[in-house]
Specification:
single chain; about 500 residues; alpha/beta
Length: about 500
């Protein structure tokens, strides 16, 4: 008696590879997927009977790569259309049909980005891959896929995410503490990070502009008199932090208290002028430096493009291509330190901080005076938590003028990277006042809008906590409050 043939289960059908023999039908993503960066992608194949086999993948270009996945095998067309409709109802956007090539690139770029961050794809992605097909050089590479937020991973948490501890552990291990951000998904969407339709974009812009205006207006605290301060202290317990005006005013008051009271007192404990140095000038135009070498003709545009890819957060494939290209250029032009810089940053994206540190050290052995390599060495030591003395790197110099006594003009990239690392270094040492001193210098140079947001956030949170502690003492102790108000009312040339 012949053995009766068993019907295919969805999993056995996918595992057999038969789905890949079907023609690709339709692929969908939200119309504004580049701005949303976390969304469902639909990839489908059409059966001869008119039914559809579909993979729906929750793509997270912000951090985790492939966050979720599920499949439908050989379902009627109306079921497929209902799935796309249901996904569209769950977003404030339109599910737009895209090419097979783009859908394929998005999925595998997300997979690489998650892997770069140390995060495995969702366990059901193995079935989705049986519908999409393996990554292949036969698919044209599409490189302009955005990752992360402000050049680093942004982990969005949903409620009590059971994988939260895993995500955080992997991010700390693979990209390093301070090199990623974490937010609750509701807060991310509530704070207007996503660009919606044009009317909604204008609404978000209006909210941001209004917030900025309120923050500037709240700096009128510099002109408050004693009665204004006493009135504010009387009502501080009743502040409604859900009210944007009160929240921004409170934040401005914290900064004002830190700057006028905590920083003023703390900065008397060291020589501010010796730390920060004399005024400097900066430019965005190319300048000649002691360590700079003019690039060969025809390479400048390529190097600018590669540098931008590294800043935006490359996929593993992009990082490999950059590393290999720079290795080729280094063989041709071994005297150009910038090529070593780009290569070791590509290696950082591929192999992590330890390999990056080793490459930076090797670069410094070849170019002992290369400023950016010294800064990258500081960066590596801060990320790994290594204890070190800044004097070992710059010979006791604490500002650009002392490091480069024959220069007064600096490129903006030099200024920003140096001051960013000085802020991080002093925060690492719990020397918040010195960190804030470097921040005030960046403000004076009108470059504060170029500081990395995570560094600025850490500094402001630290300053705010100290200011809150001062406010708590002032609330509890009327005499201390009067002394605080006396200091806040003193004239300060920075506020005139």
């Amino acid at each position: 008696m012949s053995k009766k043939k068993q019907p295919h289960t969805p999993q056995s059908y996918l595992k057999s590879g038969m789905a890949l023999k079907l023609p690709v039908y339709k692929c969908y993503v939200p119309e504004h997927w580049r701005e949303i960066k976390k969304f469902y992608l639909v990839f489908s194949r059409l059966h001869v009977n008119g039914n559809v086999t579909t993979a729906a993948i929750l793509v997270d270009l912000l951090c985790t790569g492939i966050k979720d996945a599920f499949c439908q095998v050989n379902v009627p067309m109306f079921e497929f259309e209902r799935l796309v409709g249901d996904l569209q109802e769950g977003i404030d956007d339109v599910m737009a049909e895209v090419s097979h090539d783009l859908a394929h690139n998005i999925v595998y770029a997300a997979l690489e980005y998650g892997s770069d961050n140390g995060i495995r794809p969702h366990e059901d992605f193995k079935w989705a891959a049986c519908i999409i097909g393996p990554d292949s050089d036969d698919i044209p590479l599409i490189e302009d896929i955005p990752f992360g937020e402000n050049g680093m991973p942004l982990l969005l948490l949903e409620g009590d995410d059971p994988k939260e501890a895993y995500f955080l552990r992997q991010l700390k291990s693979h990209v390093g503490e301070g090199n990623f951000r974490v937010m609750h998904q509701d807060d991310y969407y509530d704070e207007g990070y996503l660009d919606e339709e044009s009317d909604e974009e204008e609404e978000v812009d209006d909210e941001i502009n209004e917030a900025a205006r309120l923050l500037l207006e709240s700096y009128d605290v510099a002109n408050w008199d004693r009665a204004d301060w006493e009135q504010w202290f009387e009502g501080v317990a009743d502040l409604d932090m859900s009210d944007i005006k009160q929240a921004f005013q409170f934040q401005a008051i914290l900064f004002f208290i830190y700057n006028r009271f905590i920083f003023r007192i703390g900065s008397t404990e060291f020589d501010y002028d010796a730390l920060i140095g004399p005024p400097i000038e900066w430019t965005d135009e190319p300048i000649e430096t002691e360590y700079g070498v003019n690039l060969p003709e025809g390479l400048n545009d390529e190097i600018v493009e590669l540098n931008q890819v590294l800043k935006d957060g490359p996929t593993k494939r992009q990082a490999q291509e950059i590393r290999d290209r720079l290795s080729q250029l280094i063989q041709e032009y071994p005297h150009i330190p910038n090529f070593y810089n780009l290569r070791y940053n590509a290696i950082r994206a591929l192999d992590g901080i330890e390999k990056f540190r080793a490459e930076v050290t090797a670069t410094l052995e070849r170019f002992p005076d290369y400023f950016f390599a010294k800064l990258d060495l500081i960066d590596a030591m801060l990320v790994t938590g290594e204890e070190f003395d800044l004097a070992d790197v710059f010979g006791g110099a604490t500002n650009l003028s002392t490091i480069f006594p024959n220069r007064n003009l600096f490129h903006a990239s030099e200024v920003i990277k140096f001051h960013t690392l000085m802020i991080r270094y002093h925060l690492h040492l719990k020397q918040q006042v010195k960190a804030y001193a470097y921040y005030t210098e960046v403000v004076d140079l009108r470059l504060d809008d170029r500081l990395p947001p995570p560094v600025l956030k850490e500094l402001m949170e630290t300053c705010s906590l100290e200011a809150i502690a001062v406010l708590s003492l002032a609330e509890e102790n009327p005499a201390y409050r009067e002394e605080l108000i006396d200091v806040l009312l003193e004239e300060d040339e920075d506020y005139e």
